[in-house]
Amino acid sequence: MHNLYRDFGKRLFDIVATIIGGVFLLPVIIPIAIWIKFSSKGPLFYIQKRVGKDFKEFDLYKFRSMVIDADKVGPSVTSGDDPRITKVGAIIRRTKIDELPQLLNVLKDDMSLVGPRPEVMKFVSQKKEEYKKVLSVKPGITDNAAIEFRDEETIMEQYKDKEKAYIDFVLPKKIELYYKYIDNISLIGDIKLILRTLKVM
């Protein structure tokens, strides 16, 4: 049953749950989209290359929460005190609402609702051997690591060299949690993780 869900049922669950969830979330998504557009200059979405299943890169969508070209004027790792974050961005990042456009990634089959969070190639290449197992499945919007490190930006504030700290301390812990998820993929497990995510949001 475990393998049947992983190989066939997970994609069906993703499609059905994403469509239903997207409809229910429209009253949140539409006002947030308008707020972002009128509060600061720049596009509605922030699109970034992330590494997906089998090391294939894809375009990940987020609501823009930072100033234009923020990735060109600062580190890849963001902390809560980052001056590049807009006023609206601080709110939608804290509540994880900025992640909602990734429902489009799920419909495009780049991602799953539940799975290891996708990283940029810079960090994947630092842990390439460990990522062979992580990227044997599609990345997801949420999982144990996303819940465990929901306050990651606050955690990163204590480090001066944020990228080094992320690679040396945070990423290994995330990978450990990714492995735990991959070894125990199930429909019930995915539903529980989605409900836990909604609860902490």
Q: If you compute it from the alpha carbons, what radius of gyration comes out, rounded to the nearest whole angstrom?
A: 16 Å
Summed over residues and divided by their number, the pLDDT gives a mean of: 91
Largest sheet descriptor: 2 strands, antiparallel
The separation of the N and C termini measures: 31 Å
Please explain how this structure is put together.
The chain is mainly α and 201 residues long. It has one domain. Helices cover 54% and strands 10% of the residues. It has a two-stranded antiparallel ribbon. α1 runs antiparallel to α2 and α5 packs parallel to α8. The relative contact order is 0.15.
SSE order and pairing:
Blueprint: H1 2-39, E1 45-51, E2 57-63, H2 87-94, H3 102-107, E3 112-114, H4 121-124, H5 128-134, E4 140-142, H6 144-148, H7 152-156, H8 162-182, H9 187-200
Parallel strand pairs: 3-4
Antiparallel strand pairs: 1-2
Helix pairs in contact: 1-2, 5-8
